[in-house]
Write a sequence for this structure.
């Protein structure tokens, strides 16, 4: 310990591409830890044996916060986190502020899910749909680039992803009849290098999945962060719902590439393959949930897999080289809209479970079987960990007219059925079969909240709408430790080290709280 | 030097300048030399004319009135005159030999030398001159769209008659004739112009009189320094609500400065400073009354529970004072700071060495504050002071320190944040050093900010001005 104390005192945000490819376990360089998004840390100073000695080391309060949803990035003892239009740099050991950046004039629209750090720059997406680059050392704004027209309703809540010298940025939302895309920008200059359009235009393949002019207001936002396989040079990203969300009558067809997992060449933005989870979605189930890349044996053969727990209730296992569907199974108990999946992974729809004027009971609800909360994967257990919501909604439909300027274009909506026992769980699934290995019921938690973190210490960290951060035994699902942070948590836990000491940090409604072992 | 002289003159000449508020015309006006419209009946006379160079004879008065609407300025003269004669028929002829009225109008109060003349005799011959510095077309001028009538309009001549009692001139002039010099066309409520209205008495009793007195040693109607002050009033835009539009206007603020120093300094200090009985209006602090409406309320109605009384000042004057108070509180970007900003940018990058520590729009060093928005954050005075005078107390986040660590390293840098247990330092090596108390053997606080001051000494005066022009224009968010 003493040795560490004397060495790591100089900090300098110098993140290189090799760092991003193979992060020092003491840093947290990606929204989901690494390019494969497993959210599995190799740190094990905190482990199943001693986690009960975990205590808060510092709390940083953001007095202007509304509901923080940012995942911090930690580089050599400096923590960067964000809220809409603002970035903070903290001493990750003590929670003392080093600098803060405020964007003026500030269009307020939340949440913001975090920043990326590359070289000496911090990248932030903004409520007025800009990509901003700051100097990581003092928060000076270096440049900004307009991603899309905020006046049309576009905004940029997602944490950027860095690949080589590119900043990959998604866009929100789909619900305003705005067509989605995925962009790459030059990390040094902010110049746009490529754009992949989520909705094919006339003459392009699969344009015929949209009748008439319905493609013009098709949706397909890209509002979470994806994953990347450096060997295949493929970028994996989920796309959002078609619009209008609940009225599918005006867009009869598969509505590609909404509700898809897409694989793009990271250099060119050209699509290599796509897999659609919910063709002709009428329930606003964005397929943007984090795809996790796993290399493991599938039916006895080593395979490069991509797995996703989808908001529509199914857990999908794909071959990430080809996009081939391998396996799918529900990870929630109540699922009434499909009776199963075909051999190609296409849902077998249950007749009549579509929104109606009177309302139709739909399980899972529109809020989904899961949502933006990140799942995790542990290579030690070979299990996939996911936050699951059991509960049904009543979905309604009416005819809507597209109005430009950021007005919602939903074709009506849904309510959470009051007759249902809404309940949140953390579930461990066998990564290849989706079999539920254990579940942890988050008692009294009815609404989706926080994501998960797996560590080599044999732990799964999760959090809930009651404000608790909890550590579970990764093998048994048994709760080993928990702490009430006092506010609903809707962010994802991370872990890092400073001078050899392991910290676990979570952002709640208006604070960053960082924990370490009592000493 | 020039401005000094002008100011000195303004102060000694002020008491003798005539003043008049031009009201909106309350009814349509027909130009027929008959002043029977309700608008003319309601209009206030401008006031008695002064016989500037009087020696002897009957002082026959002239009743002049002015009105305006969105298109035109209206002028009427009712001339008491027992000996009316006129013979000049030529356009631009020497009409002032006859019984004659005149109006000389300077639409820009800061430049009364730019004035325009109308001289009209009793039978309707007119002479126009344009004395503006931009006018190059010779001794006379053709104003656009002017209509006028006199009582004896168009007569071949007018001889004196025993029945002579008075005559009338009625005229309208479109505002577009003044657009080149006026602040607004048509004028805005509260706009001030300078002008004089004159009368010449013809053959018998040829007195010279004017509305605004022309004190000796001035000998001519062509004395713009003696022009009176007229203010355009528009009740539709008067009052508290109208003040919402008042922001910062350099010309209005200059006028407001004078009115302020004249009207408010019984209690408030000169030039916006603190006075014996009332606070500074231009200090660097947060103000209780910041908006134009709040300032308007305070000036018009006073502030209850304090010595601040309500003021009887005219609306236009209140508005100018508000503009002046805003100017006191303006940041540098609100001012049109003279200088070559492009050259200033070069000076910033090179000769003055600012960019070594300061960043502007993504270029420059990181030790000092980012200056990309400095023009919107600081007053010009504060920027100038920061460049000249070294800061005695380093601002928060910029305290220079020297640290020796337990493991023998030496770190010099700026303390971004500190506490009993931890210290966040941005090193002069541009690296972050995050230390705990246990790591530190010794720490010394340097007495002064690393911002050197004396920039005015290291570059020429004109380079310094260019640097100021550059910095004052750095604004990411104009308020």
């Amino acid at each position: 310990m003493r040795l560490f104390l004397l060495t790591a005192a100089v900090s300098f945000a110098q993140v290189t591409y090799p760092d991003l490819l193979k992060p020092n376990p003491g840093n947290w360089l990606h929204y989901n830890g690494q390019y494969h998004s497993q959210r599995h840390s190799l740190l094990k100073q905190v482990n199943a044996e001693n986690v009960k000695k975990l205590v808060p080391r510092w709390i940083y309060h953001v007095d202007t916060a509304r509901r923080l949803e940012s995942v911090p990035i930690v580089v050599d003892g400096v923590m960067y986190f964000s809220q809409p239009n603002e970035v903070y740099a903290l001493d990750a050991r003590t929670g003392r502020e080093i600098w803060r950046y405020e964007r003026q004039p500030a269009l307020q629209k939340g949440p913001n899910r975090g920043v990326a750090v590359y070289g000496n720059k911090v990248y932030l997406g903004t409520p007025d749909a800009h990509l901003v680059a700051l100097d990581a050392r003092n928060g000076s704004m270096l440049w900004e680039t307009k991603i899309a027209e905020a006046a049309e309703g576009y905004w940029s809540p997602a944490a950027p992803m860095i690949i080589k010298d590119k900043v990959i940025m998604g866009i929100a939302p789909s619900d305003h009849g705005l067509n989605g895309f995925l962009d790459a920008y030059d990390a040094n200059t902010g110049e746009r290098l490529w754009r992949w359009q989520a909705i094919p235009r006339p003459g392009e393949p699969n344009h015929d999945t949209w009748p008439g002019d319905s493609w013009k207001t098709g949706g397909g936002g890209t509002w979470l962060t994806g994953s990347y396989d450096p060997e295949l040079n493929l970028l994996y990203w989920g796309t959002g719902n078609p619009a209008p969300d609940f009225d599918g009558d005006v867009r009869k067809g598969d509505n590609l590439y909404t509700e898809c997992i897409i694989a793009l060449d990271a250099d060119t933005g050209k699509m290599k393959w796509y897999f659609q989870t919910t063709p002709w979605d009428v329930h606003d189930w964005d397929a943007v949930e984090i795809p996790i890349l796993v290399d493991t044996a599938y039916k006895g053969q080593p395979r490069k897999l991509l797995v996703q727990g989808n908001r529509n209730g199914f857990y999908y296992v794909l071959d990430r080289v080809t996009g081939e569907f391998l396996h799918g199974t529900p990870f929630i108990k109540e699922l009434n809209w499909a009776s199963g999946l075909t051999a190609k992974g296409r849902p077998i729809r249950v007749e009549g479970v579509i929104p109606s004027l009177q309302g139709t009971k739909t399980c899972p609800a529109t809020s989904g079987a899961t949502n933006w909360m990140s799942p995790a994967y542990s290579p030690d257990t070979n299990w996939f960990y996911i936050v699951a919501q059991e509960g049904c909604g009543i979905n309604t439909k009416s005819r809507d007219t597209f109005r430009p300027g950021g007005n919602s274009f939903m074709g009506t909506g849904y309510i959470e059925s009051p007759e249902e026992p809404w309940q949140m769980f953390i579930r461990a699934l066998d990564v290849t079969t989706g079999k539920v290995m254990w579940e942890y019921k988050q008692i009294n938690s009815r609404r989706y909240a926080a994501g998960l973190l797996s560590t080599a210490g044999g732990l799964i960290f999760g959090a809930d709408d009651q404000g608790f951060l909890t550590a579970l035994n990764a093998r048994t699902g048994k709760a080993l430790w928990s702490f009430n942070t006092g506010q609903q948590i809707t962010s994802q836990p991370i872990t890092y080290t400073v001078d050899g000491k392991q910290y676990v940090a979570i952002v709640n409604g208006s604070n960053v709280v960082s924990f370490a072992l009592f000493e | 030097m020039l401005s000094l002289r002008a100011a000195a003159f303004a102060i000694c000449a002020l008491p003798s300048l005539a003043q008049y508020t031009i009201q909106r015309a309350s009814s349509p006006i027909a130009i027929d030399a008959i002043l029977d419209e309700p608008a003319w009946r309601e209009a206030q006379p401008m006031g008695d004319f002064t016989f500037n160079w009087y020696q002897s004879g009957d002082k026959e008065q002239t009743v002049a009135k002015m009105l305006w609407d969105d298109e035109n300025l209206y002028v009427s003269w009712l001339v008491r005159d027992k000996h009316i004669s006129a013979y000049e028929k030529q356009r631009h002829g020497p009409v002032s030999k006859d019984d004659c009225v005149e109006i000389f109008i300077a639409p820009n109060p800061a430049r009364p030398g730019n004035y325009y003349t109308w001289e009209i005799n009793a039978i309707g011959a007119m002479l126009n001159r344009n004395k503006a510095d931009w006018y190059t077309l010779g001794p006379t001028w053709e104003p656009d769209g002017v209509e006028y009538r006199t009582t004896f309009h168009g007569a071949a001549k007018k001889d004196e008659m025993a029945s002579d009692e008075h005559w009338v001139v009625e005229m309208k002039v479109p505002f577009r004739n003044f657009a080149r010099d006026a602040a607004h066309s048509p004028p805005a409520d509260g706009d001030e112009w300078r002008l004089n209205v004159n009368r010449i008495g013809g053959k018998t009793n040829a007195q010279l009189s004017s509305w605004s007195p022309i004190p000796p040693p001035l000998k001519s109607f062509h004395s713009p320094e003696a022009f009176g002050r007229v203010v355009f009033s528009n009740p539709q835009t008067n009052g508290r609500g109208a003040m919402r539009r008042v922001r910062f206007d350099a010309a209005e603020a200059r006028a407001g400065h004078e009115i302020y120093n004249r009207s408010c300094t019984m209690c408030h200090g000169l030039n916006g400073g603190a006075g014996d009985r009332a606070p500074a209006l231009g200090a660097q602090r947060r103000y209780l009354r910041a908006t134009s409406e709040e300032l308007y309320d305070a000036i018009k109605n006073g502030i209850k529970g304090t010595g601040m009384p309500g003021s009887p000042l005219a609306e236009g004057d209140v508005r100018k004072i508000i503009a002046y108070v805003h100017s006191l509180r303006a940041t540098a970007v609100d001012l049109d700071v003279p200088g070559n900003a492009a050259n200033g940018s070069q000076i910033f990058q090179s000769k003055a060495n600012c960019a070594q520590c300061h960043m502007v729009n993504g270029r420059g060093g990181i030790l000092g504050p980012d200056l990309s928005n400095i023009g919107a954050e600081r007053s010009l005075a504060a920027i100038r002071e920061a460049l000249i005078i070294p800061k005695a107390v380093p601002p928060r986040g910029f305290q220079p320190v020297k640290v020796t660590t337990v493991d023998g390293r030496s770190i010099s840098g700026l303390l971004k944040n500190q506490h009993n247990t931890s210290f966040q330092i941005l090193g002069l090596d541009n690296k972050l050093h995050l230390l705990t108390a246990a790591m530190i053997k010794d720490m010394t606080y340097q007495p002064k900010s690393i911002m050197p001051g004396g920039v005015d000494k290291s570059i020429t005066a004109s380079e310094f001005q260019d640097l100021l022009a550059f910095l004052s224009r750095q604004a990411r968010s104009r308020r």
Remarks:
- Confidence is low (pLDDT under 50) at residues 1-11 of chain A.
- The interface with chain B takes residues 5-6, 9-13, 77-78, 91, 93-94, 96-99, 104-105, 133, 135, 137-143, 498 of chain A (CB under 8 Å).
